[in-house]
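testing teh design pipeline on a random one, pls ignore if ur not involved
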């Protein structure tokens, strides 16, 4: 899914990039002073100098991700968000250069942006999927598999081992990266008038199935109510609280309420379930009536 900046935006991006590259580099000592001033005194002037000095790092990282078809300016903006997050969390006392720490935040922010916007369908939601998305093409090129077609089983297995993911994950990402978003309103052919959405199967139940399901559900609810009526009050209370509530009570809670042990509650529950089963089976012609839709 390609995105192209308009000429005015491109000129603004180029101006920003040139300005970033002219910013002087910081010495370790001066960087430390700026970081401490921001952390301890919330010195915004120190923060701005620190951020401007490493804007070139944002630009260089954005350049590495430009092949994903997203505007360079948007990548830079996301990278700036990342470096601001790095500045908010940076601990100068750990003797790590801000450039090293900030690079991780910049890359993470850009990768999240790419995954959100590369396609209208969310592409990477797990660590394995993200790793595949950003490394699959590189690894295919590394083993000389640049045909653009389906990978061989050996190549799939090699990449799966390299990234410590399943072969099926590699196959799914391969298909995902080779496909592009397509509108369901697009015509099937140049000469045809039908849209792709007209060929989607409707998997919802038809009206007859809906009515039958409602009738059968009501019948089973009646059977259950009648069976519960045959239980003792204590057995009925246990079934209601243990089986018919979303947040069922524990054996220990019921034991305290009824003044018996957990084991006794378990025995009563088991006996009550047996009575329910026998009561309901007396009301059906076959066991399949409990599960069928008709």
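output:
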């Amino acid at each position: 899914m390609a995105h192209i900046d308009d000429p005015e935006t491109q000129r603004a991006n180029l101006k920003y990039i040139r300005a970033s590259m002219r910013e002087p580099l910081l010495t370790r000592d001066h960087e430390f002073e700026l970081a401490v001033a921001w952390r301890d005194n919330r010195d915004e002037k120190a923060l701005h100098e620190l951020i401007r000095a490493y804007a070139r790092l944002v630009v260089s990282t954005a350049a590495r991700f430009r092949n994903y078809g997203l505007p360079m300016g948007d990548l830079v903006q996301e990278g700036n968000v990342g470096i601001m997050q790095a500045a908010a969390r940076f601990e100068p006392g750990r003797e790590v250069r801000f450039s090293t720490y900030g690079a991780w935040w910049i890359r993470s922010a850009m990768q999240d942006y790419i995954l959100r916007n590369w396609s209208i369908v969310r592409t990477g939601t797990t660590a394995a999927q993200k790793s595949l998305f950003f490394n699959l093409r590189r690894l295919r090129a590394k083993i000389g598999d640049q045909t653009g077609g389906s990978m061989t089983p050996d190549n799939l297995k090699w990449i799966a081992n390299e990234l410590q993911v399943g072969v099926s994950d590699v196959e799914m990402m391969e298909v995902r990266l080779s496909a592009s978003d397509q509108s369901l309103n697009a015509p099937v052919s140049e000469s045809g008038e039908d849209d792709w959405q007209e060929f989607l199967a409707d998997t919802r139940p038809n009206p007859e199935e809906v009515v039958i399901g409602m009738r059968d559900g009501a019948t089973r609810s009646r059977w259950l109510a009648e069976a519960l009526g045959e239980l003792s009050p204590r057995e009925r209370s246990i079934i209601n609280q243990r089986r018919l509530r979303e947040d069922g009570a524990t054996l220990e809670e019921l034991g305290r309420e009824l003044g018996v042990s957990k084991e006794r509650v378990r025995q009563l529950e088991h006996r009550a379930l047996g009575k329910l089963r026998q009561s309901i089976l007396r009301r059906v012609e076959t066991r399949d009536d409990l599960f069928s839709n008709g």
